[in-house]
Amino acid sequence: MKGLVAYHSKYGNGKIIAEAIGGGLAGADHTVTVIDVSKPVVGDFDFVVVGSPTRAGRMMGPVKRFIGRELEKESWKGKPFVAVGTGFKPEGTGKKTDQWGARSAEKVYEALEKAGLKPLMGPQKFFVSDMKGPLEEGEQQRAAELGLSAGKTLSEA
Known about the structure:
There is one protein chain. This protein is α/β, with parallel strands linked by helices. The chain has a single domain, classed as Flavodoxin domain (Rossmann fold, 3-Layer(aba) Sandwich), CATH 3.40.50.360. It has helices spanning about 15-25, 60-70, 105-115, 140-155; strands spanning about 1-5, 30-35, 45-55, 60, 80-85, 120, 125. Strands 1, 2, 3, 4, 5, 6 and 7 form a seven-stranded mixed beta sheet that branches.
């Protein structure tokens, strides 16, 4: 199967996660194209992974515009997706910002489902230790494992 991994990355963390997921999908024998959401989608794909950093508990504008511009097309309806978000790990302090931790994954999930795509799994969150990064230890490896797992699921479908 041919897959598209589209990401927006303000400080580079989203790109690292997208490339790791793409590597995992390729390891499951899928052909994968990894692009920044500012680029147009060229070609036909069987599934998509979309990733966004979290800003104030939401996905960022470039990802929202990408979904509207590219993934709300009739040709994407019914295709599987994985929604990915990066952000802080909730600390459990009860502060409002605790609710924002990598919540972009949920917002991307909702937007893709509304556009008519079908979830392959629930929203996937990856954590940074600071707003500009780096990713927390093990997150890049976890992203590669997610890609491999998603790839195997897609192959079995």
